[in-house]
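The protein record passed on below.

***
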Amino acid sequence: MQETRYTGAPPIRPAGGWSVERLTPPSRLFGANGLRTGPDGRVYVAQVAGSQISALDVDTGRLETVSAQGSDIVAPDDVDFDATGDLYATEYYDGRVSARGADGRTRVLRDDVPGANGITFHQGRLFIDECRIGGRLLELDPGGGAPRVILEDLPLPNAMAFGPDGKLYYPLLGSNDIWRIDPDGGEPERVAGDLGVPDAVKFDAAGNLVSTQVGTGEVLRINPRSGERTVLATIAPGLDNLTFVGARLFVSGFTGQITEILDGGRTRTVLPGGMTWPLDLTAGADGTVYVADGTYFYALPPGGGGPRVLGMLFSPGWPGYVRGVASAGADEFVVTTSLGQIARWWPAKGEHAVLAGGTEPFDQLYGVAVAPGGDVVAAELGAGRVVSVRGGEVTTLASGLDRPAGVAFAADGTCLVSESGAGRVVAISGSGPGSAAETVLDGLERPQGIAVRGGRLAVVDAGARSLIEAGLDGTSRTTIARELPVGDPSGQPPKPLKGLMPFTGPQGLFAGVAAGPDGALYVSADAEGSVLAVREEG
């Protein structure tokens, strides 16, 4: 049985006098999005974030990777099969639809369908929709001909299905309802409204519509004739899709959890959830570790107990897909998002305030830190610069850097930045055109997260899969852990995810590191989806 998505990896090798502990278990999937029961009876799971499609045996839990990260299908969101068994996938970020034959060969059917999401076959005909504001509902020609527009200007249509009446049923996240239409003509009809943000529909053997609610975590059964509703189960916000294997019902969630819905509201976990990457992390004064995982934000309290969700994509006050994070006080954080914004966020209050990037978004923000004087400093990887924000005013601290990723401050206020493209860590002196970037540590492959611990610099080198510690002058360098599960899981750089609002791109990996008050170093093991605690023994 595949216990983790990061297969064939050597064990972590801590240096003498150091130990490594997993605070969270590795994830088995890169999240779980579209679900479809294949001709072989297995459930095929599309994983947008990991550009992967897996086949799951729901009885044994055995997983097989069907389309791996780095292959021709990028960011698959939903899948279906034609009558010959060929697999068709929508590629959300790239705006494509691809077909994969039984021989493993892939061809692109369309590359001009931004936000391609829901997909379904009906009597040999192929239909998709675009999950975006102003999205379209289309019939595609599997042979590659021009698409036929059925509807347009829809508010975020998602995973759809044909009902026994021959009509196409589609949920709209933006209007919180479910509609149907005869694909050969006629006006759309509203089937159900005031739901829990429906993001997928399928039909059971009795002709009832079953829908996952991403906002409330409910699985609803709706009689399409009477409108009568029944809550089959309530799991957690973040549900994404569903499929039937015979009469058995399975649902997916953003965290990668696959759940079977049983009678009487009972459930059975087929695959446990986990973290999708994770990306950056930070430690609070009480030892709590906070983890930015894109569409989720977790707290890992000291003493164990597992991750606690502090916020997610549909939480009040959500600031956006979170990449970089730094603690700024009790229940207060500064974050960078894929929206290109720097924000201050209070998860418990359900509020955030954009500090910069609201009208002119930054280009691929990653690491963020709070300077001793209170300024918020962030790495803008795409523009090759480091910016500082105070009172809404943005100052460039350094420019001309090669893919800056991580940011940290020494006790004396020196700003340290990892240049992932140049393989070094630099210290920034001054600001603006006259600033200088002085090399502190070089000879690295792809440094990302950095932190200062007890007057020493800690660096995650994702290229070398190592955690390195050195003096702040670059001397006395020590590799304290090797073979870390960070970086590209396959060893090959994944094809970039181009991005689409609100997940602007390109999306990229980032392995963060944070120093805790207990002296531990915490690392986001993005390749396997876990959080590591690296401690000095004795």
